[in-house]
Specification:
It is a single chain. This protein has about 110 residues and is mostly beta strands. It has a single domain, classed as Jelly Rolls, CATH 2.60.120. About 0% of the residues lie in helices and about 50% in strands. Strands 1, 2, 3, 4, 5, 6, 7 and 8 form an eight-stranded antiparallel β-sheet that branches. The N and C termini lie far apart (about 30 Å).
């Protein structure tokens, strides 16, 4: 996964922040602070993130396509414009049944 910070003080078209790369998941940092991160991510068909558990809530917003997000063994399909909060301490994974892009926000507070 590529991880380069987005340029500040410049207007951006959200869906154009990140491009698709064949057979890949690509990540571009929008904001990175000690208190959290906002990232744009693109997933090619058949790609995904392995199951993990985060100590923080994660806000996932689909900006193009359709994603399958599995939280605590429950599958949820999200389409363009939809979002979900993935709760802290719950096992979750992200699947790309087709290409999609999303914005992921993690705020690192409230779970000491």
């Amino acid at each position: 996964m590529e991880n380069t910070e987005l340029e500040k003080s410049k207007a951006h078209i959200t869906v154009e922040i990140i491009e698709y790369v064949p057979n890949s998941v690509v990540c571009k940092t929008i904001i990175k602070k000690s208190t959290g991160t906002i990232s744009a991510m693109s997933f090619d068909t058949g790609e995904g993130l392995i199951e993990k558990t985060s100590p923080f809530d994660i806000y996932a917003q689909i900006i193009e396509g359709q994603a399958e997000i599995v939280i605590d063994d429950k599958s949820i399909l999200l389409e363009t414009g939809q979002s979900i909060i993935i709760p802290a301490h719950k096992p979750n994974l992200i699947k790309a049944n087709g290409r999609f892009k999303m914005i992921q926000t993690v705020i690192k507070s409230g779970y000491e």
